[in-house]
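Hello support,

Our group uses your service weekly, and this is the first time we've seen a run hang past the timeout. The protein is PHOP2 phosphatase. I'm not sure whether the cause is the sequence or the server load. Input pasted verbatim:
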Amino acid sequence: MKFLLVFDFDHTIIDENSDTWIVRCAPERKLPNGLRNSYQPGHWTEYMDRVFVYLGDNGVKEDEMKRTMTTIPFTAGMIDLLGFIGENKELFDCIIVSDSNTVFIDWILKAADFHKVFDEVFTNPAAFSSTGYLNVQHFHAHHCAKCPKNLCKRKVLKEFLDKQLEQGVSYTQIVYIGDGGNDLCPVMFLKKNDIAMPRQGYTLEKKISQLARSLSPVQCSVLAWSSAIDIMSYLKLLIKE
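Update from on-call engineer: The timeout came from a worker crash unrelated to the input. Re-ran successfully.
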């Protein structure tokens, strides 16, 4: 009996968007209008790459970025929840599927000593160049019309489950914890026995409600959360069963 916990990162594990938080490193903590207005829907990764070039051009170094990123607060109750999962790793496999990047997530999890809680992190690959600039790339290519160009979370989840099945691992239940519009695609992939846990008042919860109103509800159960303590209470019930 094993459960799979799938976490989004921004506004789910941490209480902010890591990509917008990094702007605190910019001169006067803001980006020039031309750069800010250069974002095109579905092309966030390319936009962030331009932001990192701007930071590099302004002499922002890796250590300053790291210091800034590790001050992001965790969502209410999340430290308790991750501690609880860490103590019960024999029951939970735990992955992150995020539109952030490997460098940010790695810094934040390691600084708080939570990197061992997660079995795998699926996010946009990033690295510092020899000149000290952070570069970020697309996670993969996909054909899903619903998702941003660089990442379809349903595809990631499906491929992970297929790989696990090949190794003889199947899950009693998948618990999907997220907040954003790009979490809807994987939630629609979940089965009747699974559960989606959207963050209360955020886009994912609103989109799931819209589907229910238009009489095409998701197959899985839905339980909204406002503090990660709500998620922990549910997981404790799961273990008791």
